[in-house]
Amino acid sequence: MEVNQSFFSLLITSYFIALGVMIGGSLIGGVGAFLVGKPPLTMITQFAVNLRIWALVAAIGGTFDTFYSFERSFFGGDTKDIVKQILLIFFATGGMQTGFTIIKWITQEHI
User: Does 31 fall in a domain?
Assistant: First the structure.
């Protein structure tokens, strides 16, 4: 079952999906690290570094449909779809970077 979303709501959704993957995955991974006796704050930062690409993949749908649509639009000459796909990837990257920054603030590992 597919839900039709406006493009603006799709951008906001992709931003917050990437943000949630970064924060949620890192913090839950930190709980696991604590349970096995590893330093949780250091591991939270390491998980955040490793989750960056997966946050993008989850935000754009987890498949290559976005890149296929980008290729189809590029060779078909439809610049409107190209701009939409670039914005979708840009917003997902922004959510990922925001989550990473919040994790760095929480852990203070960069100090």
Answer: yes
111 assigned to some structural domain: no
Which residue from 27, 10, 17, 29 is spatially nearest to 93, judged by alpha carbons? 17
pLDDT of residue 65: 67
In a domain, 84, yes or no: yes
Left if phi > 0, otherwise alpha if psi is -120 to 50, otherwise beta: which for 92? alpha
| Cβ atoms of residues 50 and 33 within 8 Å | no
Q: Which domain holds residue 57?
A: 7-106
The pLDDT assigned to 110 comes to 63
pTM for this entry: 0.82
